[in-house]
Amino acid sequence: MLSFYKLAVFFFVFYHNKKKDMSNNTTWSSHSPKTPTKMLERALSVRRSAFADSDAGDSETSAGDESKTKRQHFSLLFTNYVSRLTHSWPCLVLCLFIVVSLTASLTFHSRGLVCVSPRDPVSRLGFLGSDGLESDFGYLGVPWCRSKHGKTVEWTSKDLLKGLEEFVPIYETRPIKNNMYGMGFDHSFGLWFIARWLKPDLMIESGAFKGHSTWVLRQAMPDIHIISITPRHPEKYLKKGPAYVDGNCTYFAGKDFVDFGSIEWGSVMKKHGINDHRRVLIFFDDHQNELKRIRQALKAGFRHLVFEDNYDTGTGDHYSLRHICDQFYIRGGGHSCFRDSDEARVREKRKHFWEKAVDIEELCGPGEAWWGVRGQMRDNFNHSNTPISYAEHFQNSRLIESILDLYWELPPVAGPSLTHQTRYDPSRAPTPIVEDGRYGLFQRLGLGRLESSVFNGYTQMVYIQISEQ
Ligand SMILES: C[S@@+](CC[C@H](N)C(=O)[O-])C[C@H]1O[C@@H](n2cnc3c(N)ncnc32)[C@H](O)[C@@H]1O
């Protein structure tokens, strides 16, 4: 920076001296018959004649054509001005250059001076270049679960965009504005979109907290029944602030709480007139081992499941589908615990910029166990933590693959340069619905109206279809 200013000062002095030389030459040189000398002479003579006219009191000319006199006066001033500018343009260009450079420099460097987090998108850009942003999506691999026949979802990215446009105004009317510890915008949209698309006959949620997800399900399907399973009834939260209690919902909550795995689903479904369990949508946001939940759902004959927190390998408080399917044979899956590897170097760097990114130290537990969370299978908000061998972990993925018809991870709704999210690491996520740089589209969809904090909860929500057994 210092050398830049030295250079600027050098150029300024150089041009100043040069200009002095030029005017010296112009004034005193008799060898240069044209350009600067002529222009200066013309300027001087013009000034002289103007005074001369008034001095001479040539009233006939001046009074006779006043407008002409004035016009001539301005044109002369202009010529004069231009002639002076011609001498100083290198200085003007230099000044302009300095002003532009200073503004640009202050924009980036002042953030560093005021200790803005490096997770701030602008700072990230300053530190990482474009690597910190959109170009990173999927850079470290995006593991996924193979389904039996490789089936994909019916909806397209166009459907998702249309859905976003419709959902933003709905989301703006949510009763719980600050849903800390619950779903943010990305997953609220994902749940609403999936429920609306599938049009189930009944919806079950496990883990309601204050009721935000119940409200989202209700927006998607206004008339169908909901069953909500949660230890603390959402109405309890009403005493302290906003909460949502649905009028067409059966609550297994409070003294009526029964864990999903212990409910007699046959009789409960019959009670609600549901004969076909395949037409029920289940939403899990209860932070339980997902393998356990899938086995329970399978036993009860349910087919459509959504998991809110599909944590990435090395993170989270329960064994997730991402954990299970992160395997060497999956594109983007499997890890090595070598400290001297590209993955270790990239992870180390990314950890400084994304809160949820984990470096190789955090990823790998004793014996270089990278699967699950440092070789552990977590359950029940991390209250249970069981070490598993790689062989067991591998078997779990084979079991899941043998029963899966479909696996679909919700992409982030928009890139971090638009949402300003700072948590999930794009290098472990699929390409967002609204890609970085598409500011116009982001605004058109109404996403720009939302507070940036609502975009900070993305954890790869997943929708799976279990095949009929
Ligand atoms: C992250 S919160 C759910 C947030 C909610 N879905 C939302 O979007 O606002 C997790 C909830 O799961 C509940 N929970 C804990 N154990 C549970 C269990 N075994 N079955 C169902 N819910 C459980 C907790 O009490 C808590 O309300």
Map the helices and strands:
Elements: H1 2-28, H2 36-56, H3 59-64, H4 66-113, H5 121-128, H6 157-171, H7 185-198, E1 202-206, H8 212-220, E2 225-230, E3 249-253, H9 265-271, E4 280-284, H10 290-300, E5 304-307, H11 321-325, H12 342-350, H13 360-363, E6 376-379, E7 384-387, H14 390-403, E8 404-409, H15 416-419, H16 439-444, E9 462-466
The structure holds S-adenosylmethionine.
The site of S-adenosylmethionine has 21 residues, from α8 and β2.
Beta strand count: 9
Percent of residues in beta strands: 5-15%
Range of helix content: 40-55%
Number of helices: 16
Report how far apart the termini are. Answer: 69 Å
Q: What is the C-alpha radius of gyration, as a whole number of Å?
A: 35 Å
Which small-molecule species are bound to the chains here?
Answer: S-adenosylmethionine
